[in-house]
Design a protein that fits this description.
Blueprint: E1 17-24, E2 27-34, H1 61-83
Antiparallel strand pairs: 1-2
Length: about 90
């Protein structure tokens, strides 16, 4: 696989192919996906220096949704405490 297979959805510049992994039936399976856009003039361009995330597990859409659901439930409980409604 080469970088010619993927392009930035914003500027159209070719991007690298990177490997991510996901768990399927208890085994980690590689998935080749488009990498970040390296065009400094692109809105999806590289992050500012010093803002890169620490290396670690990548948050999936499901993780993001689960986190948002927990926050929503906590906010609901907090509102109930304030208003006295149960």
């Amino acid at each position: 696989m080469d970088s010619g297979e993927y392009a930035c959805p914003v500027c159209g510049q070719p991007v690298d192919t990177v490997v991510r992994r996901h768990k399927t039936l208890g085994a980690w399976v590689p998935a080749w996906v488009p990498g970040p856009c390296r065009n400094p003039r692109c809105a999806a361009g590289p992050e500012e220096p010093g803002t890169a995330r620490a290396a670690g597990p990548r948050e999936t859409d499901r993780d993001t949704q689960d986190r948002q659901d927990r926050q929503d439930r906590q906010q609901h409980r907090d509102r109930q405490k304030i208003t006295g409604h149960h």
